[in-house]
Amino acid sequence: MFELLKAGGILMVPIVACSILALAIILERFWTLREKRVAPTQSINELWRWIKKKELNGRKLKALQASSPLGRILAGGLINAKHGREIMKESIEHEASQVIHELERFLNPLGTVATITPLLGLLGTVIGMIKVFAEIQLAGVGNAGNLAGGISEALITTAAGLSVAIPALIAHRYFIRRVDALVVNMEQEAIKLVEVVHGDREIDVEGA
After folding, report:
1. Residue 155: what pLDDT?
2. Which of 99, 129, 138, 163 has minimal CB crowding within 10 Å?
């Protein structure tokens, strides 16, 4: 592996660095964007039971706020529920914007990795071909070994760049869709909470 990296030239260093960064982001996002962590069903069902039994208090609101990103959004709305529907909705939207920003953390760097690694590979290809033509100009086409070195460097960097970019792009698209699905789920729960608190909807704790 070291010989392969060495044959790829200096541009293999940023490509390898990008691969390490992409792997770290992918593993971290897989762990962070789990539904049971972002919007745990158990915490939501417990909230509905608290509301129905009129057991909601400051201590339980703090527990809800610390339980999950969705709990943080709902707690933000409940804290300001006494000020009316619009203030409650604004509080939910304020908390939701911060939560969504946290859910999307590191996705831009992952997208950047998916974009620049093929370009780094292409740059390596260009540098390798420049070396080939420079060797031809100096020594002609008789020295096949030197020519093969330049061609090998060009191909290795291209392959390495694409090998990093393809899974990074797939993961980036997957996480974007994952965040969108989580946001829709949290939005539905927030709307339900507003309607329940202001008497427009009955609490459904079936199965809770």
Report:
1. 84
2. 138
Which residues fall within 8 angstroms of residue 86, CB to CB, at 6 or more apart?
Answer: none
Tens of pLDDT, residues 80-105: 888 888 999 999 999 999 999 999 99
φ, ψ dihedrals at 207, nearest 5°: 85, -5
Range of the domain at 101: 1-198
- Is 93 contained in some domain? yes
**Contacting residues for 98 by C-beta, under 8 A, at least 6 apart:** none
Do residues 68 and 43 touch, judged by C-beta distance below 8 A? yes
* Predicted TM-score (pTM) of this structure: 0.83
Domain assignment present for residue 80? The answer is yes
CB-CB contact of 43 with 64 (8 Å): yes
pLDDT at 52: 84
